[in-house]
Each structure stands twice: as structure tokens, then as C-alpha cells.
Amino acid sequence: MNLKSIWLLALIAGFSASTAQENPRWDDARSKDWPEKCKLISIKSSVDGNEQPAYFYQSETKEARPLIVSLHTWSGGYDQKDTLSWQCIERDYHYIHPHFRGPNKTYEACGSPLALSDIEDAIYYSLQHANVDTNRIHIIGASGGGYATLLAYMKTKHRISSFSAWVPISNLVDWYHESEGRNSKYSRDIAMATTGKDFDKDTYYFDESEARSRSPIFMDTPVQNRMNSKLYIYAGVHDGYTGSVPITHSLNFYNKVVGDFDIMDKEALIPSGEIIELLASRGSSHPNKVQLGGRDIHLHKNYKDKIRVCIFEGGHEMLEDIALNHVED
To answer: Exposed e or buried b for every residue in 123-137, given b needs 16+ CB within 10 A?
Structure first.
């Protein structure tokens, strides 16, 4: 095999790996595979009266059961295949998968007031139509769903037991520029969402002020309303290299919220030097026998029992086999 052939094979392999990373099994916006027990419903928006679809599963037992609010990824919608739906049926948890205005490339989606109110409405719907244990409501999402989970943490008025954000976006301003640097489609999505314009793929711009207003990291943490909630943030250490969201989105948001709770708790905060070293080494300089779902943990920090961040050996992914473990904590 000549040098040109080897180079071509390497290029194809790299492209395939990148494509797979952007569209893993839990993040396939093209798949509409749903369990028969999940029913398609419609929820009228409390803000604009727009009917928003969702998939909903009601526990088959009479006793109060936990509610899982599962939030779709950046490019998905209510009908995007969600691997957690099968787990919730198996465990007999109430479950809802709302649309909240669909893929994050329109002005009404992407962390807008309408999208956030749709998540609130989905929880209200579940409380009205199922016997929910109100002490065990859990919001979970990955990637764009992780972004929505962080938004819910900052904005929801419901009493939520846990928020579980996997590989989330916390700063749309940074992510716009990061996506531009990676020649990724997400920068154009942010441009369309923050301006309401339908740009072509080559010429676009974003509204930085609007992006800031939709970014969890720039929002005031509702400290008093989260005293009895837990926030879990997970990210694969290679994300941003092999995936689309740098782990700084997770680490910076963790530090921001911990600082809002108690700026004097220096032990809980992640030093900037440690963040830089983790980004540079991607965990290779810190062998660790502690694991998460069979993956090495490269960094784990927590503030009391309220806020935790875990950087594990992996990429842009949710470890779906353990994603619901917090429900029984």
C-alpha cells in the first residue's frame, strides 16, 4: 500500500470517528423508535397557547412513583429516540420527553422563554395526569439536553430532586466561537436561534447579547430555591477534542454555581491551574482507580451534597446504563 492510500484511509477513518462521535446511539435525531407504552400527547403552552407534542409514560402501579423529565439533544425533538424511555418503563417510573420548540436553531427554541415554559408545562402535565412522588422529580439531559437541564436548574419553579447534565453547553457565546473554530454547524444554529434569521451555510452572524441571555453561566443561581436539590454534571475528558463541547463548559459552570453558594469554600472550587492541566493532559497525568460505570474518573469535585462534577474517561456521551442511578439515592 502506497503512502497516498494510507493517508486516504486515515482520513476516512478520522471522518467516520468524528461523525460517530457527533451522533452516538443516544443522540440519533433521525431515529423515531419508541416503546409502545409511551403515548404521544399534546400539551398546550401556558404562554402562547401553542400545542407542544411529547411522549409520556404513566407508571402502571397505584403508588406514587418518581418522574423522569428527559430533555432532547441539540438537534432533536420530542420524537428523537430516547434510550432512557425503555429504562423508565422497566423501572416503572413516570416519564415525559417534551418538545420545547424542537431543535435549537430557531428563535423560539434554544433556551428561549417559550422553550423553558414548555418544560415547566410538561412537568405540570405529569403532575396532573400521574401519581408523581413530588419529592422525586428528576430532570436529565445530554449535550443540548444537558444545556436545557442547566437552564432548568437556573429557572424552574418546580421542586426538583436532581438535575443531571451530561456533556452540557453552559455558555452560548463561547460555544459559538468554539464551533466556528471547529467548522461545526452549531455556530450557524446559534446564529439562527439568537437572531431569528434563516442564514445560508456560509454567511451568518449571531446576536451576542441574546446568546448571553440564553446562557446558564450568565444567570443568577437561585440558591435559596436549590437548597434541597442536587446538581450532577458529567463530561467525557476528550469532549471538545473528539466531540463538540469542550469540558470547560462543565467545569466553569460548576465553579460559578459553587461560588454563588459559597465563594469562600476554596476547597470545593476547581483551581484554574488544575483545569488547564486537565485540558492539556486529558487525564493521562493522573492515573485513577476510581471509576464511573467502568470508566476512569479524572476529576471529581463536590460542594456538600448539592453540586457535583465528574470528568470521566470518554467523549461527548452519556453513560446511559448509569444515568438514572441518582433516582434511588
So the answer is: bebbeeebebbeebb
* Half-sphere CA count of 17, side-chain side, radius 13 A: 12
Q: Is residue 160 part of a domain?
A: yes
Give the range of the structural domain holding residue 103, as residue numbers without chain letter: 3-171+215-328
Q: Is residue 192 part of a domain?
A: no
* pLDDT number for residue 196: 98
Cell of 134: 413530588
Percent of the chain with pLDDT over 70: 89
Cell representation of residue 13: 477513518
The residues, ordered by sequence, that sit 6+ positions from 102 with a Cβ below 8 Å of its Cβ are 76, 77, 78, 109
Radius of gyration over every alpha carbon of the chain, rounded to an integer in angstroms:
20
CATH assignment at residue 127: 3.40.50.1820
Strands of the sheet containing 65-71, edge to edge, are 39-44, 51-57, 94-98, 65-71, 132-142, 162-166, 230-236, 307-312, 295-303, 291-292
Cell of 278: 486537565
Instruction: Output the pTM of the full model.
Output: 0.91
Question: What pLDDT was estimated at residue 29?
Answer: 64
Let me know: does 111 contact 151? Beta carbons within 8 Å: yes
- Cα 95 from Cα 126, distance rounded (Å): 8
Residues whose CB is less than 8 angstroms from the CB of residue 253 and which lie 6 or more positions away in sequence, other chains included: 150, 168, 170, 171, 216, 217, 233
Q: Which of 234, 237, 254, 255 is nearest to 246 (CA)?
A: 237
Residue pLDDT, tens place only, 85-109 = 999 999 999 999 999 999 999 999 9
Query: φ, ψ for residue 301 (rounded to 5)?
Result: -135, 150
